Amino acid sequence: MRGCKAGSSDYIPANFGGTVCGLHISGVFMFVTPAYAQGVGATPDVFISILPFVLIFVIMYFLIIRPQRQQLKKRGEMLAAIRRGDTVVTGGGLVGKVTKVIDDSELEVDLGGMKVTALRATISDVRVKGEPVANQNAKK
Questions:
Q1: CA 70, 71, 73: angle at the middle one, nearest 5?
Q2: Sign of the torsion angle spanned by Cα atoms 114, 86, 100, 121
Q3: Dihedral (Cα; 92, 93, 94, 97), 10-degree rounding
Q4: With helix as H, strand as E and coil as C, how does the chain read?
Q5: Per-residue model confidence as pLDDT tens digits over 30-85
Q6: Fewest C-beta atoms under 10 Å: which of 84, 106, 115, 135?
Q7: Whether residue 140 has pLDDT greater than 50
Q8: Angle at 89 between CA 88 and CA 91, to 5 degrees
Q9: Full set of structural domains in the chain with CATH
Q10: pLDDT tens digits along 80-100
Q11: Residue 33, Cα to own-chain centre: how many angstroms?
């Protein structure tokens, strides 16, 4: 027999037309069904294809973009409302009182006897709002 020889050092592959190790294998392949080509499925609508991306963008807008814009708007209003007498905290953690508003971007801050010129953008928080400055034209 020319197939599998147990204990033999020379292996000769079996021909699959007849018997292998005494087993007849012609009937084994009757359980395998042929795989025929499938028909092309219907293409999804373009709207359905784009819908997940639109939903992701809407969720990102409401969870990330919109709150960040509101925060920036609130911070801009806070920085624009700084006036003389306000107690502020700078970005470096220095706490002082605003003594003079130089222009739209600079402030003079008194840090306990030391006056420092700071940019409005470096102010991280306004702790105590000062009293409104009296209009100097009203005294005249």
A1: 65
A2: positive
A3: 110
A4: CCCCCCCCCCCCCCCCCCEECCEECCCHHHHCCCCCCCCCCCCCCHHHHHHHHHHHHHHHHHHHHHHHHHHHHHHHHHHHCCCCCCEEEECCCCEEEEEEECCCCEEEEECCCCEEEEEHHHEEEEEECCCCCCCHHHCC
A5: 566 677 777 777 777 888 889 999 999 999 999 999 999 999 999 999 999 999 99
A6: 135
A7: no
A8: 135
A9: 81-138 (2.30.30.100)
A10: 999 999 999 999 999 999 999
A11: 49
Six token digits for residue 125: 């928080």
The token duo for 56 is 């992701």
Using CB atoms within 10 Å of the CB of residue 118, give its burial: 0 to 12 exposed, 13 to 18 middle, 19+ buried: buried
pTM over 0.70: no
Distances in Å between the Cα of 41 and the Cα atoms of 37, 47, 48 are 12, 17, 15
Structure tokens at 19: 């018997």
Do residues 109 and 115 touch, judged by C-beta distance below 8 A?
yes
Residue type, 92: G
